[in-house]
């Protein structure tokens, strides 16, 4: 048993649901050729919104978990990815690869959103949604067995 503050299960489950709903919306665009995707202008807006929402929720989950681990105070979003790996919440190769990329892309969506192209969003939908699924599975594992991570959960 640890003296850390417990994880807020309700908060984490709500954020996971938000990610899963965004992912479901994004997956409907998977397999659509770029030319077809570009034909409907709203496709860009839908994908941008759902991806941004999922990435924000991923970072919020990471930040919440890290707030329960003494000495882990991320200063930047990329620190969230790194610290989740260092604290074995997710495997370090996932933290320093796909999760770090998600943090970087979240920053890009917030700070240089005007430079994001239809082609790059389409590419993410076709190739990278599996990384969001992987994150979901790691967090569900944490919620199922928090003691494996030296954490507790409020019920």
Give the gist of this structure.
With 155 residues, this protein is mainly α. It has helices at 9-27, 34-39, 41-66, 77-86, 92-111, 118-127, 129-144, and strands at 7-8, 153-154.
What would you say this structure looks like, in words?
- The protein is mostly helical.
- It contains seven helices and two strands; from the N terminus they run βαααααααβ.
- It has helices spanning 9-27, 34-39, 41-66, 77-86, 92-111, 118-127, 129-144; strands at residues 7-8, 153-154.
- The longest helix has 26 residues, at 41-66.
- The model has no long low-confidence stretch (mean pLDDT 95).
Average pLDDT, all residues: 95
Level of helix content? 55-70%
Taken together, the total number of domains comes to: 1
Question: Biggest sheet, open or closed, and with what strands and sense?
Answer: 2 strands, parallel
From the coordinates shown, what is the CATH architecture? Answer: Up-down Bundle
Tell me the name of the CATH homologous superfamily. Answer: bsu32300-like
Structural class: mainly alpha
Tell me the distance between the termini: 16 Å
- Total helix count? 7
Q: Tell me the strand order in the biggest sheet.
A: 1-2
Radius of gyration from CA coordinates: 16 Å
Shape: elongated
Strand and helix order: EHHHHHHHE
Q: Which stretches of 5+ consecutive residues score pLDDT under 50?
A: none
Query: Which fold name corresponds to the CATH topology?
Result: Four Helix Bundle (Hemerythrin (Met), subunit A)
CATH class: Mainly Alpha
Number of strands: 2
β-strand amount: under 5%
